Amino acid sequence: MWPWIVTLLLVAWIAMGTWQRFKPLPEGIGEAWPERPAESVRFLADETWIDGSGERQARREIFDELLALVGQARRLVVLDMFLFNDFAGNADGEAFRPLSTELTDALVRQKRRHPDLEAVVITDPLNTLYGGLELDHLEALRRAGVTVVLTDLNRLRASNPLWSGVWHLGPRWLGNGSEGGWLPNALGPGRVPLRSYLALLNFNANHRKSLVVDQGDGWVGLVTSANPHDASSLHGNVALRVEGGAALDLLDTERPVAGWSGVSLPAPRAAEAGVPAHGARLQVLTEGAIRDALVAAVGRARSGDRLDIAVFYLSHRGVIEALLAAHGRGVDIRVLLDPNRDAFGLEKGGIPNRPVARELHDAGIHVRWCATRGEQCHSKLLLRRPATAGEAEMIIGSANFTRRNLDDLNLETSLRLIGPVDTPALSEAGAFFERRWHSTPDKVTSEPFAVHGDATAWQRLRYRVMEATGLSTF
User: Fold this and answer.
1) Residue-wise over 253-264: b if at least 16 C-beta within 10 A, else e?
2) 398-433: per-residue pLDDT in tens?
3) Which CATH architecture is the domain 281-469 placed in?
4) Would you say the C-alpha torsion 270, 272, 274, 280 has a positive or negative sign?
5) What's the predicted TM-score (pTM) here?
6) What is the topology classification, in CATH, of domain 29-259?
């Protein structure tokens, strides 16, 4: 009987893994909303650099703006954030800003001031190690009347089908609890059950980072690459603040995710339809629609145009091939990458950026590295600017340029801004990139390719296997 049992289990594993990888997407996932008039758009950035004396300096904008928006809300706050905790991994002792506490206090305070305020916080179950921990700040939100939604990741396709086939056949149904944990929490204090790590191996995430609030009679949205995570407070990040119809589109992106947990979000009104004839426009993108927009933006670049990219992870083969083709057309491309060296006190191996950077560099594309000292260059930004006449284009948000982030495996949100080259937010994004790219002895922001350009054949092979199979954290 044993050969038959083993064969049956093997068939069940393959069948479940295949289904989880290719099952239909939930409604509302991977969509591109209509273009809207760009109302009161602001580009925001968190930047770090090394000064002439070797000290790290910083300029922060994103969470000051986010906290201010929460602090003026009266009717509705919908916040969706991937990392929302004070875990520091092995990076204890750093001068982190207590972002998780500041945001929790702001939400609780605003709910007490305005009891009728509807406040919903959506986050990833990684924050509780998939049910293996209880977090004080999430409990404080619940006690204050804030609705806390831990995203049901089982609705998503499998990022790691080799494991997810096993997970959905057995361990998933065991559940999890915060009592009786016996394994160390790799992300912070406390102990967690084995089931937490079995869930972690699926490598799925709600990786979104967005906010929608009322402002007077209108609506404001913010999309960012930044997390309210204390140990991430030193990272470099970018954000876009928007108003009007695009903000209501952002609210619509959260409706299905909240609905998976039985939470209904209000519908203030439908966003206006139609594409504006002139001026700057905004478009909300999620999941696979971000990939399509990135590849299309690169494809629109012509000889003499400039493409600037600043991203934490670059590994998606479709995006890389589009960049190589654009370079062949004579597009001026600059790619600014994190060296993939630091992860909350741990040293990483440079994958995927170093082998990808070597590939781009060998093709003749300009590559530089962010100058980092423990923090990460965490932006996700593409900026296309024409050589002469025409419109500029920017794509900005939560999504790294990887298979997991762009191929409908994670939940992601980005914004696309199109308009005249002198549109303030586009100009500000361009100035941000120039500051990061052009390093000086008194303000070290980036380093030449050669500093981390020593990718080995083994790294290149590992990157390709990890990107293709999903056996990775990027």
Assistant:
1) bbbbbbbbeebe
2) 999 999 999 999 999 999 999 999 999 999 999 999
3) 2-Layer Sandwich (3.30)
4) negative
5) 0.95
6) Endonuclease; Chain A (3.30.870)
